[in-house]
Structures are given as structure tokens and as C-alpha cells.
Design a protein that fits this description.
alpha+beta, 38% helix, globular
Length: 333
């Protein structure tokens, strides 16, 4: 029972959080929100804790129905067994039931697990009774937390548990149980004296980065040290990186892909060092472009910008590039 529960829990979190299809392949490369309240980000941010180190958003419906995803489905094999099993076990159809997702990672300074704990907030149409019933069939149990039903599953050797709760109608919180509890606390005003929880909307440094994102359909923002920890970079490489505090990235997915990657350096000297690194990368990329016009168009679209401590790199991958890739790929049976 424990093995089956662990398998289902891990699969559910991965599928719901980052397994939404080709549209979320660039999850940590970033995407700005389509369903954005322009001055404050998506409304679900109020349920993200203030000390979240990584936050990412995707407008699932726009991405899943984009021309780019339809093109990629034709020549990139995508295993949909996980999505199908997830629907069988929960009644949630990822492609049709979920409108948008907001995910966060909170790194615990006392934890030996670098990625920390995570949670996904999914907005859509869900059968709450069916979800709870199917999870209980796979070994989960129901707990009451501040008047909310939290479906909890054991993660085996991991000290934390996996929780699912409907914070409000049409909004489900899925992930590390303490974070799910935090979302419930914030929904009820964050007035739990035992947690002292506060929302990410009160973190002005973080919110300034969120507000700076361009219009689009997905984004990501977070602390750079957390990003490098997740990337498992060799110590020699990590030590040579310029001193970066925050990063943000945004893109728009339609027929092609366009966006901006930004980095906030510790000071102007670190920002200038980072610009030198990026200039070297751009020079090498232009040399490697060869005579292919589609690749040259993409390389020429790379533009270095930013002032002071901010470094920005904008990019555009036109639809023609993906058409060329599709032409070279073997036809799927």
C-alpha cells in the first residue's frame, strides 16, 4: 500500500505541477501570466508564502491550445500515460479541467534537501468528491485543518506528507502538506498565531520583479541561489558565476516563442561582469549559426539590455524554426 501510495502521490504532483505537456517544458526558463492582474500578478499569489524562493506561473489553456504545442506534438514523442492515469485516479483532465497554475518552492534552511518543499495552486473545474474518494482508495486519509478537508498521503521515508485541499471553489492546492496548510492560513487571513504566516504579496522585492514581467502566458521568478542549487552545477562553474541575487524570465508561447530573461546582480560591477559573459555567448552563437536563415533569425533576435544592476536578454524563436525542426524529424507512426 505504501509503495502504491508513494507512486501515485509523486506522479500526481509531477503531472499536475510540471507535466502539463510541451507548453511547460521551459518551466524554469520562465513565462509571464496571461490571466494577470497587471499591478499585482495572478490573484493566487495571495496564497503563496512570503518566503517562497521560486514562483512560476503558466496559463495552461493558452499554452495547451497554442500553435506551437500542436506542432511539437506531431514530431516529439510525448508519453501521455501519466496524464491518463492521473485522470483515471482523480477525475481531473489536465488539458480541459485546468485553466492556470501557480507553483512555488520554499527552501528550508534547516533541510538537507536543496530543492525544498513545493506546492501547486491549480485553478479550474474539479469534482472534489471524486478526487477525495479516489485518493482515499490509494491509501490517503482526510484531516481537518481550520475547517478545510485536507487529503493527506504518506511519502514513505520523507518526513513530510503530501496534501490536497480545495482552498476555495475551483482552486486546489497540491503539494507539501505544510505549504498546503499555509495556503489555507492565508485564505483565512493568515491569522494563525502558531504559524505567523505572511503572503508573498507583502514581499515588495519579489512583487517588483513580478510587476516587471511583460505580457504573455507564463513566467518564473526567484532567488538565483535556489536556481543554481536545482541545476546541480559543478562547484567550479558555480564559483565563477557573477554575483546574482534574483532572476526573472518571461515568454509568450503562440506559433513561436519569445520572451525576456532578467538578472538582478548584487552591484553594478557584478552586472557588468555578467554582461561580458553574455556578450561572449552571443558572439559564439553568431559564429555557430552558419548559413541557415532560420537559425540566423533566432540568433539575431537575441538582444542584450538592462541598466544599473539589471541585465536583460530578450529572444525570439520564430515559428519557422519549429517548422524546420519538424521537417527534419522522422514521421511519428
Amino acid at each position: 500500500m505504501v509503495n502504491r501510495t508513494r507512486y501515485f502521490v509523486i506522479a500526481a504532483l509531477l503531472v499536475l505541477g510540471v507535466g502539463l505537456g510541451t507548453g511547460l517544458v521551459a518551466f524554469f526558463v520562465g513565462f509571464p501570466a496571461g490571466a494577470f492582474q497587471r499591478r499585482g500578478g495572478p490573484e493566487e499569489l495571495q496564497y503563496i508564502p512570503r518566503d517562497a524562493s521560486l514562483i512560476a506561473y503558466a496559463d495552461v489553456q493558452q499554452i495547451m491550445t497554442s500553435d506551437l504545442r500542436q506542432k511539437l506534438r506531431k514530431f516529439i514523442p510525448m508519453k501521455e500515460d501519466g496524464q491518463r492515469e492521473f485522470q483515471d485516479r482523480t477525475g481531473i483532465n489536465i488539458e480541459t479541467d485546468i485553466d492556470r497554475v501557480l507553483a512555488c518552492v520554499r527552501t528550508d534552511a534547516n533541510s538537507t534537501n536543496p530543492p525544498g518543499s513545493g506546492m501547486v495552486l491549480a485553478r479550474g473545474r474539479f469534482d472534489e468528491v471524486r478526487i477525495e474518494s479516489l485518493m482515499r482508495e490509494h491509501g490517503a486519509h482526510v484531516e481537518d485543518y481550520r475547517g478545510k478537508r485536507v487529503v493527506v498521503a504518506d511519502l514513505g521515508r520523507h518526513p513530510d506528507t503530501f496534501g490536497v485541499a480545495f482552498v476555495e471553489p475551483g482552486l486546489v492546492a497540491v503539494g507539501n502538506s505544510p505549504l498546503v496548510h499555509t495556503a489555507i492560513d492565508l485564505h483565512q487571513g493568515g491569522d494563525n498565531p502558531q504559524t505567523g504566516v505572511a503572503s508573498a504579496t507583502g514581499n515588495e522585492e519579489l512583487m517588483n520583479l513580478v510587476r516587471s514581467l511583460d505580457a504573455g502566458n507564463a513566467w518564473a521568478v526567484g532567488r538565483f541561489d535556489v536556481l543554481t542549487a536545482r541545476a546541480n552545477l559543478p562547484s567550479g562553474v558555480a564559483d565563477r558565476l557573477p554575483a546574482i541575487t534574483w532572476f526573472s524570465a518571461s515568454s509568450h508561447i503562440n506559433g513561436g516563442l519569445s520572451g525576456v530573461i532578467r538578472a538582478e546582480a548584487r552591484d553594478e560591477e557584478a552586472a557588468n561582469n555578467l554582461r561580458d559573459v553574455v556578450r561572449g555567448f552571443l558572439a559564439l552563437a553568431k559564429m555557430q549559426a552558419g548559413s541557415r536563415p532560420d537559425v540566423q533569425a533566432m540568433i539575431q533576435s537575441l538582444e542584450l539590455g538592462g541598466t544599473g544592476k539589471t541585465v536583460a536578454l530578450s529572444f525570439t524563436v520564430p515559428a519557422q524554426v519549429f517548422d524546420a525542426i519538424a521537417a527534419l524529424a522522422p514521421e511519428r507512426q
